[in-house]
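PROTOCOL LOG
Step 1. Enter all chains and additional molecules of the complex.
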Amino acid sequence: MFIRPPSENPRAGCNWLADCSLVVRMTAAVVIILTITLTAVFWWSGHRHQKLIQDHLSQQMKTLSSDLVHTSKVFLGDDNLRRVEQLIQDFSTRHQLTRCRLILPNGAVLADAHEASGVQHVLPGSWPSGPYTYSIPAAVHDGTVDVQVAFDVTGRGQVVLQVSALVTGNQFLTVQVFAGYAGIILVAVFSLLLWGRYLSAPLHSIETIRHALLALASGEKSYSVLAIHNQSTPEVNGWNRIIGNILKLEEIAIERNSQQSLLVPRKSTTGLEGACDAMWHGIILLDNKMCARYANGAAAVLLGMQRSEIIGNEISTFIAQGDILKAVQETIDGSSLQRKVFEHQLQFDDAEAGQLRISVRPVRREDPGSVIMIIEDITQLRAAEDARHSFIAQATHELRMPLTNICLYVEEALENDDTNLELHAKCLNVINQEAHRLERVVGEMLSVAQIESGVLEIERDDVPVGLLIEELENDYRVQAQEKQVRLTFHQSPKLPTLYGDRDKITLALHNLLGNAIKYTTPNGQVDVRIDADENLFAVVIEDTGIGIDPNDLERIFEKFYRGKNSRISKIAGSGLGLTLAREVMRLHGGDIVAESKMDEGSKFTLTLPFKAEVA
Amino acid sequence: MEIQEHRHGAVVVLKPLGPLCLEDAEVFRQRMFEVMAKSRGRFVIDVSAVPHIDSQGLEAMVDTSEVLSQSGQSFKVCAVNNTLHEVLDLTGFSSHFESYEKVTDAVRSFL
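Step 2. Run joint prediction.
Step 3. Record the structure below.
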C-alpha cells in the first residue's frame, strides 16, 4: 500500500464532492464563480443599457411633442385642420411612432396618423374643457414611451396630443456590446484552461501530499505507505525526502532509546546461578533439615512466591502437600533414593489455579543428605488433555448415535419379511437420514480439525451477496413454513459483491439461519437483516426462540458444546456448527457475535470485511 | 487503548488494539505485568492489530521479556506485521522475543 495519486484513488466517484481531487474542486469552484460573476455583469449592463435608451427616448419625445404642440396650435388657430392632419402624419412617419393623434376632451379625434375612421374633418366652433393638465409627462409601459400633452386653442377649448413610440435600442450597438462580452468570456475560459493545465501537475502533487498528511495525522508511520510513488514533481520529491528524514530520525530515536533501555543495568546473574535461572523448570535444593538452600527464578514464579520467601525457609512454608513432605523426609533419611513424582494443585486468591509436577530425588545417591526438587508447570498440558478427552467423548457420542440407529434398522429390515414393503421403506428412510447425519458430523469434525491444524484453505473469489441471500431464502422458506415460523428478510435492493470463499460463507449463513429456525417455536419470528457499508458486510439473524442461558453464551462456540437446557437436548445437533461458522468467518477476517435472553430469543451478528487480508 | 484478553486453555492471549506509543505503552506494560503475575508467565501477545510501535512500547516489551527470562520463561509474540518486524530488526530486539505466525502456534509452545 502507498499513497496513491488522487486520480488513482479507487474510491473516487463514490461521494462526488468529498472524493474529488483538490484540482477538480478548485477548477469547479473557479468556473462556478466566473460564471456567476459574468452572468451578473451581463444582467446589470443590459439593464443599464435599456434604461439609458428609455430615458433618451423619453426626453426626445417630450421635445418633439412640444414642437408639434406649438405648430398644431398655430394651424388649429387658423382653422386649418387639414394641415394639422398632414403634420401629424409626417411627424409620425418621420419618428416611427406607434401612436400620434390629437383628441378633444370628450374623446372626439381631430387627427390620427394611424387610424382614419372616426376622425372629424371639420373643426368644431368650441367644445367643453377637459381634465387634462398642461404639463408634458412621459411614461414607459411594456417597452413603449407614452407622452400626453394638453394645450388650448384660442377661443375654442383644450386639445390633447397623444404620442407613443417603441423603445428600440441601437441593434448594432447591442450586438457590439454582447460580442465584446462573449469575447471576454472566451478569453477568460481559455486563460483558465491554460492556467489549469499549467497548475495541474503541482496541484496534483499537492493533493497527493495532502492525502499523505492525513495518513500521517491518523497515525501511519510506515515509509512505504507515506511516500508518494508514480510521481516525480519537485513537490513530491521534496515531500518524499522530508518524510524519509522524519521517519529515519524517529527510527534513530527508537533505536537510541531502546539501546539506552538495554544499557540500564538490569538484575542479572552469570555462571551456574545464571544457567539455573535460565531454566524453564523450577529447581529447589533442600538440606538435611528440609530447608531450602537454593531456588531458581522459575521455582519462585511457579510457586507464586518471592525467592527470598523460599531460600532459608523450611519446605512446609511453601509446600503443604503431605505426600511431598513425606517423600522429602524419606529421601533425607536415606530410606528412599528413587525419584518420586507428584502432581501439586496450586490455588491462589490473586492468581489462576495451576497444576505442577514436582519430582523429588537426592542430589547424589551416595549422599542422601540433600534433596533436589524439580518443578514443572503442566497446567496447559492438563488443559489440553482435558480438551482432548472431552473432544473424544463428544465425538464418540455423536458418531455412535447415528451408527446405533443404522444398525438397529438394518437388523429390523433383515429380520422381517421381504414382502413388508412399508417397513422396508421406513427402515431405508431412517438409515438414509442417519447416514447423512453421520456424513455431516464427520464432515464438520474434519473441517474443525483442518481449522485447528491450520490446513483449511480459503479459496477467495467474488461472491455476489444478492444471489447468496436469495439462495438462502429459497432453502429455508419451506422449512420455516412447515414449522410455522415467520421468516422475513430485510435487505436493500442492491447488495454488493464480497471477496471470499463462497462455500464457507454459505456454510456459516446456513448454520446461523438453520439454528434460528430450529430453536424457534411455532408461531415465532425469524428476521434476517442484511446491511453493508463501504467496509463491512453484516448479516443479523434475530429470532424469538427459546434463547440461550448467559452462562452458555460464549461457550456455544466451543466444539461439541450444547446448552444444558433440557429443551435444547431434545433438538438434534452436533455442537460443531457454530464453531465452524465462527472459525470460517475469522479466517475471512470477520466474526460472529451472539446476544440472547432466555425465553425471549437470540441475535447472531455476522460481520465480514469486503476485502480483508488473509487471516 | 483497548487490550483484548482471550483464554486458550491455561494460556492468556493479550491482543492490544492500536499503536503501542506514549502513554498507551505504559498501560500495556502494566497490563502485561498483571497478566504475567496472574498466569505465572503463561501468556502470549497477539500484535496483529498493532500498526506501529515506538521506543516506549518497545521498552515495555523488553522489560517484560527481561523479567520473564529471569525465571527461564520467554516473551511470546505472534502475528508480527512488516512494520513491527522492521522496527524489531532495526533495533536488534527481534532475537529477544519468541515469535510465532499464529496464536495457536504460540499457545501450543506451552505444551
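Step 4. Note key features.
Residues 7 and 101 of chain B are 18 Å apart (CA to CA).
The first strand of chain B starts at residue 2 and ends at 8.
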